[in-house]
Amino acid sequence: DRRQRQMCIRDSAYIHYGDFDIAGVYIYQDIYKKHIKGPKKFFVPKFIDKLMHRFGDAELYDKQLSYRNSIISDEPGIQELMKIIDKEHKGLEQEIFNSKEYKKYTD
Fold it and tell me: Which of 35, 39, 45, 72 is a plausible cystine mate for 7, CB 3.0–4.6 Å?
């Protein structure tokens, strides 16, 4: 598709901002990361553990569990995120950042 062709020619750094769940990491690895030539990274906020605990959705985790074994990453941020996802048995959509409620958990 057009988006993948655009990414293939991109040599600049790419930071992926997606959902903080199994499917979000899978999409990054399977669709984006392998097509980007330049440096790439999955954005993981430093306070993701607090957000996941408070706002995470267990139903997301259950629905996406079939993709879990496909997640193999050497990126420290993804490794830490996956530990949190597995510990909490939850996923978190990026839309949490549209809420004012999340700001209480960022310190």
Answer: 35
